[in-house]
Design goal:
This protein has eight helices and three strands. The protein is mostly helical. Strand 2 and strand 3 form a beta hairpin. Helix 2 crosses helix 7. The longest helix is centred in the N-terminal third of the chain and has 20 residues.
Length: 149
């Protein structure tokens, strides 16, 4: 069966939204690296730390839900943060099935440096605050049913 070349030209790789998002994500993560590496933090660990700076202690499930990460991804990441001395992992005394993640003194000590990373990366994006907000809102709305936006 022959394909119409005109139809194929509409679906080239370079025109794929997913490629543009993949490339942008990769570039943004790379922009974080020079700020995070001196602290011994990876980008996913940075996200966990930022979540804990909002509220801690938090359950593993709550962190996973907030970041859209499953336990299989989150558990080894948290274990590395424990090993680095930035967080603790303890069973919730009120419910032994839950694991609570909390910041250590060392985790709290790098708060200012980690929080500054966001501003540095946003500056490197060369978008206004309004453009950043609109882009975030657009990306947050991707894939959601119209009544959830």
């Amino acid at each position: 069966m022959k394909r119409n070349c005109r139809e194929d030209s509409k679906i080239t790789v370079k025109k794929q939204l997913s490629l543009a998002l993949y490339g942008a994500t990769s570039r943004l993560i790379r922009q974080h690296r020079p700020f995070l590496e001196p602290l011994g933090i990876t980008y996913p660990q940075f996200l966990v730390m930022m979540t804990l700076y909002e509220t801690s202690p938090r359950t593993v499930g709550d962190i996973g839900q907030t970041l859209g990460m499953d336990n299989g991804t989150l558990t080894p990441l948290l274990k590395r943060l424990v090993k680095a001395g930035f967080v603790t992992r303890e069973r919730d005394p009120a419910d032994e099935r839950r694991v609570l993640i909390d910041l250590t003194g060392a985790g709290k000590a790098i708060r200012t440096e980690l929080k500054a990373v966001t501003g540095k990366v946003e500056t490197a994006c060369r978008l206004s605050e309004q453009e950043l907000k609109e882009l975030r809102d657009t990306l947050d709305g991707l894939g959601l049913p119209p009544n959830k936006q």
